[in-house]
Amino acid sequence: MTLTLDTACELDPRVSLRPEPFGALAYHYGNRRLVFLRHPDIVAVVRDLADHGSVRDALVARGVATERWPGFVSALESLRNSEIVRVR
After folding, report:
1. How far is CA 16 from the centre of its chain?
2. Number of folded domains in the chain?
3. Domain ranges, residue 28
4. 3-state DSSP assignment of residue 50
5. CATH number, position 28
């Protein structure tokens, strides 16, 4: 399944986010992966995903400009493949 703007996602409960000046480190306690989230905006969206009905809703709530949405969808798809976020 490919992640889209209409996909409902959430941070995997086995993942811990540690804030860093560049964004955050995401550590998955199940698969032991460490992933760098390289921008504070993606960290904020990842944290908020569970509070919204779709990726689109999370991006709108965070005030992310629409021209940046494709990059966020791509980043979230990568995080889904790493099991950092999951589809609800």
Report:
1. 12
2. 1
3. 9-87
4. helix
5. 3.90.930
